[in-house]
Write a structure and sequence with these properties.
The protein is an alpha/beta fold. It is built from seven helices and eleven strands.
């Protein structure tokens, strides 16, 4: 049987044969405000808390303290779990390092952090926030070729990776990363009456018999849950 990583989104793991195949590179994609970062952090946090699985969250845009405060307000404090959950703010390094050009040098720093922490901590789950920032960081010119090598490097780390990406409002556009990733989970915002509600759907998950529906996504003090028929 395929070993899987749980998302700890109630209803979703049952809809994906128990979770996401271990070692996959999975995109968490959606419009701004669709809780992509929160869903990614939830996967990392709950696996650390409930399965004792170590994880690393690499933020390239949001300040580390701001991120931790945000997750604490969502009932995911890491104060007592710092040996299981690490948050690395490469954005801070970007702002304070002098003389480092975008491109290969920044790409090397990013990969060095991930590899060194893998050697030192032995983490099994990696969240990267976000792909757009990685592309700027690495000064990507040939997107498909460079993402092919990036995703290959991530698989060689022998971790399960979740990458935050921004969705496009044009549904006819299929992005290079959608082809290259092992899985794509869509988060959507829909206006319904006077409310804007969250939806989640699994667009792609290799080696997995998963549902194709878009389901309401609920978040409360008990965590995330999709509402299925």
């Amino acid at each position: 049987m395929t070993e899987r990583i749980q998302t700890f989104i109630k209803g979703l793991d049952d809809d994906m044969e128990g979770g996401i195949p271990k070692g996959y590179v999975v995109l968490l994609t959606g419009m701004p405000g669709s809780m992509k970062s929160s869903v990614g952090f939830n996967i990392l946090y709950q696996n650390a808390k409930q399965n004792k699985t170590k994880g690393v969250y690499i933020t390239l845009e949001q300040d580390r303290n701001s991120l931790l405060e945000q997750m604490k307000s969502l009932h995911m404090p890491v104060d007592e779990m710092e040996n299981m959950v690490s948050v690395v703010d490469i954005g801070y390094l970007r702002q304070n390092a002098e003389g480092m050009e975008y491109g290969d040098s920044w790409n090397s720093v990013f990969r060095m952090y991930a590899e060194n922490m893998k050697s030192a901590q032995g983490y099994d789950i990696l969240v990267i926030d976000s792909l757009a920032a990685v592309e700027v960081l690495a000064d990507v010119k040939n997107k498909r070729a460079e993402l092919f090598h990036l995703f290959g490097w991530l698989r060689a780390l022998n971790v399960t990776t979740f990458i935050i990406t921004e969705a496009t409002s044009n549904q006819d556009i299929v992005r290079d990363e959608d082809f290259l990733a092992d899985g794509v989970i869509h988060l959507d915002l829909r206006r319904e009456g006077s409310s804007v509600n969250l939806y989640l759907g699994v667009a792609k998950m290799r080696r997995t018999n998963h549902g194709r529906g878009y389901h309401p996504l609920i978040f409360d003090q008990n965590g995330f849950e999709i509402i299925t028929d």
